[in-house]
């Protein structure tokens, strides 16, 4: 066959060369195609990674990073019946979260609007939106009892100031209006109240504490010639006149002596209650003011009611006076009390220790 076609070998060689050329071009095209696809793939991957990074950064900022003006150690109230959108918007306005929309989404992912717990929340430190969503959907209020001490001798007005500084829902004016009738019957003590407690609960707890403490003296009160109100009134005067237990009992004896002799009590402590004046600030006009029912320089007997909160020591002194024959007493500027049997002796001590 080869002899019949002498160009056969030549044609075969050319065909082989064309095949080699075609396979070479094919390899080049495949390489170029792979390179192009790999380039496109790397570019898409890079774009996806950039988008994912941006999304992750936004997610972190919105979910985990709190606003720079987060209201640390402040109380936030979630109102009963407030919608989720209203709540989220209010939390954004006060700086709890950066985005109301993002908080709304997170809350819905955790169970929706009905999962939100109304109430007062305390944030001790800044937290992100994800944590805020968890807090309001689990009712983690963050409220812990606050230790508040009401000192002996405090008036209702004094208590109002102390409580209003520590309790964020407490209204001093309302407290005074509601508690003034209980002056002397709110026991001075150290209390632990939740920071969102209001006036009625404070009054209730203090009155209950007074009733518990006074029960110790139930028999003595029953056998006394004075009523409970008179005993507490006497104790409140003693409370403001001295702080040493023995001095309190001696003063109680002096006051009983004067009451038995129908003498004016002439105590200065009542002016602290009515005029916020101490012994060295009282004027002659104050001493002669008959319109002041608490003025024991012109009105005989005990004043109309207690002038301060009384502790156990003053109550004890009012019920267990130290019997003595003193009719006068005074205290110097350091708080030392001096007792006298006669007015002349009293004047001498006044010039020596006071004037």
Structure, described:
The chain has helices at 8-63, 84-93, 100-109, 129-138, 156-166, 172-179, 199-214, 218-223, 228-241, 245-260, 269-275, 284-287, 312-319, 343-353; strands at residues 74-78, 119-123, 146-149, 190-193, 328-331, 337-340. It is mainly alpha-helical and 355 residues long. Strand 5 (328-331) and strand 6 form a beta hairpin. The radius of gyration is 43 Å and the shape is rod-shaped. It starts with 7 loop residues before the first helix and ends with a helix.
Number of strands: 6
Sheet-strand content, in percent, reads: 5-15%
Radius of gyration: 43 Å
Instruction: Please state the structural category.
Output: mainly alpha
Q: What is the topology, as strand order, of the major beta sheet?
A: 1-2
Helix content: 40-55%
Major sheet summary line: 2 strands, antiparallel
Number of distinct helices: 14
The overall pLDDT average reads 87
Question: Secondary-structure map with pairings?
Answer:
Elements: H1 8-63, E1 74-78, H2 84-93, H3 100-109, E2 119-123, H4 129-138, E3 146-149, H5 156-166, H6 172-179, E4 190-193, H7 199-214, H8 218-223, H9 228-241, H10 245-260, H11 269-275, H12 284-287, H13 312-319, E5 328-331, E6 337-340, H14 343-353
Antiparallel strand pairs: 1-2, 3-4, 5-6
Helix pairs in contact: 2-3, 3-4, 5-6, 9-10, 9-13, 10-13
Summarize the structure.
With about 350 residues, this protein is mainly alpha-helical.
State the main characteristics.
355 residues, mainly alpha, Dna Ligase, domain 1, two-stranded antiparallel ribbon, 7% strand
